[in-house]
Amino acid sequence: MFENLKKYNKILVTGPQRSGTRIAAKIIALDTDYAYIDEEEFKVSNLDQLKEILKRKKIVVQCPGVSAWIQKFSADDTLIVFMKRDAEDILASQKRINWQQKTEVSKYNKSGGIISLIKYNEWEGRQRPIIKHWLELEYESLVKHSLWIPKEKRTNFKYDQTK
Does 98 reside within a domain? Predict the structure, then answer.
């Protein structure tokens, strides 16, 4: 499904939390035969640790926590994949696992609002126009991949909906 992305040494998968960044990154890593890097490896948003990881080649990094700064990682050999998912579905997923968005909202110098909509607006208005290589990926477009888990089998998942 994503074999054509092998022309990039690094692929960063970002967007709102609960939009499918983890499953998308795992699918892309499988299809390209690249190493998968989970956000936990750089404490979700530690930019210094992420910069060290990005010295490697042939990696796919799941990184919704750095979405506010993703344009800083634009490079000739890097593809930024931005996940899109229905905001209502994201909110339902946040509620199911009791994910609090306050810290993430503050990265955008805001005190409130729906984080997925804040991220979509930032991406479309400020970030996407200055990123060299990007791809918007709809969550539902992953449904035909062998790693996809149907919604009815995800009801008891916690934060990591790939196990």
Answer: yes
Count the domains in the chain: 1
pLDDT digits (tens, 9 = 90+) for 32-61: 999 999 999 999 999 999 999 999 999 999
Is 140 in a helix, a strand, or coil? helix
Q: Answer yes or no: is 81 within a domain.
A: yes
CB environment 115-151: b (16+ within 10 A), e (fewer): bbebbbebbeeebeeebebbeebebeebeebeeeeee
Query: What global pTM score does this model have?
Result: 0.94
161 within domain boundaries: no
Considering the domain boundaries, does residue 19 fall inside one? yes
109-142 pLDDT tens trace: 988 899 999 999 999 999 999 999 999 999 999 9
